[in-house]
Amino acid sequence: MLRYIGKRILQLIPTLILVSIVVFLMVRIIPGDPITLLYGVSEDGGASQEYIMQLKDQYGLNDPLPIQYIHWIMGIMKGDLGTSLVTKKTIMTELTNRYPYTITLAVWGTVVGSIIGVIFGVIAAVHHNKFGDNAVMVISMIAVSTPSFFLAMLLMLYFCIHLKVFPSLGLGSWKAAVLPITTLGLGAVGMIARTTRSSMLDVMGQDYIRTAKAYGVPRTKLIMSYAFKNALIPVLTAIGLRFGGLLAGATMVETIFTINGIGSFLVDSVSRRDYPAIQSTVLVLAFSFVVVNTVVDIIYGLVDPRVKYK
Questions:
Q1: Which of 175, 297, 303, 207 lies closest to 244, judged by CA?
Q2: 80: helix, coil or strand?
Q3: Is the four-CA dihedral 59, 64, 69, 71 of positive or negative sign?
Q4: Backbone angles phi, psi at 90, to 5 degrees
Q5: pLDDT at position 115
Q6: Which of 232, 235, 252 shows the shortest CA–CA distance to 243?
Q7: pTM above 0.70, yes or no
Q8: In the CATH scheme, what is the code of domain 92-303?
């Protein structure tokens, strides 16, 4: 187990290096200059061209791209993610203040989506090709096809504006968290339900399930103790991918509900061409996603003793 964990940690290094290179180059492809965008030029009543060049030199934006990349990576190795060109705060401070909001949304969104999705998936598998199965598949298709921003706006219009039972902005109380978490959770239901259904149907077709049924094992025990337990690994994979995706993919929900999470910070950084903030935020999100997948792989062995780490 320890050797496997060590190997997975070592695999993080080339992955993160590749992500850092891609992100570093992509942010510089975005049209626009962050300094000019922030301060303007003299013709528009902004800063002089000389001052703009001075600021670019100060932030190292006039250096060759390889030098800029090396400086950025060396700073990360020292624990310095850089300083935002817009807020003038360290990116570590920005992410530390915002990460709890994103984690809250991702964790509870995954919990809600997993509980509902697994229940729906089991119902669909048990009632295969019957009304329950067809109903779950329709609901799953709708959940998968509905964009999160559209669902968020529908929920906001009905529960915030029409019924006025939930606040529409921020994440200051449990009431304010209900709609964002519901939006993310319902978005996860479709994929998890379909994965659970497929995995359950595969397991329920195995010989040992038919043998247990022939020996008179109660239906509930047959489904939960035999079939569901052995169908868990694909389900865990789907849940882990969804959780990792929510860490990086709650952007639209955070923006619509005005939540100061990492997603909204990343959107603001892209719109303002804040190179250091974009680079370091994407790298942190990539690291979080890979760590979540590694943890899920380790959980496999706890759920299914047949899984061996070599």
A1: 297
A2: coil
A3: negative
A4: -65, 145
A5: 93
A6: 235
A7: yes
A8: 1.10.3720.10
Cβ neighbours for 284, distance < 8 A, ≥ 6 positions apart: 81, 95, 262
Confidence at residue 307, expressed as pLDDT on a 0 to 100 scale: 64
CB-CB contact of 292 with 244 (8 Å): yes
170 closest CA partner among 264, 291, 48: 264
pLDDT 10s digits, 194-253: 999 999 888 888 888 888 888 888 888 888 877 888 888 888 888 888 887 787 667 788
Highest-pLDDT range among 15-29, 73-87, 107-121: 107-121
Q: Do 156 and 256 meet the contact criterion of CB atoms below 8 Å apart?
A: yes
Contact between residue 259 and residue 181 where contact means Cβ atoms under 8 Å apart: no
Contact 261, 105 (CB under 8 A): yes
Cα distances (Å, whole numbers) of residue 303 to 32, 52, 86, 211, 217:
50, 58, 46, 23, 22
Q: What are the Cα distances from residue 106, in Å, to 25, 66, 240, 309?
A: 28, 35, 11, 28
The set of residues, in sequence order, having a beta carbon less than 8 Å from that of 210 and lying 6+ positions away, is none
Tell me the pLDDT band of 46, cut-offs 50, 70 and 90.
Answer: low
Given a contact cutoff of 8 angstroms between Cβ atoms, the answer to whether 110 and 186 are in contact is no
Please check whether residue 100 is in contact with residue 173, taking contact to mean a CB–CB distance below 8 angstroms.
Answer: no
89 phi-psi bin (left φ>0, alpha ψ -120 to 50, beta other): beta
- CATH 1.10.3720.10 domain locations along the chain: 92-303
Q: State yes or no: pLDDT of 310 exceeds 70.
A: no
b/e map of 109-131 (b: 16 or more CB within 10 Å)? bbebbbebbbebbbbbbbeeeee
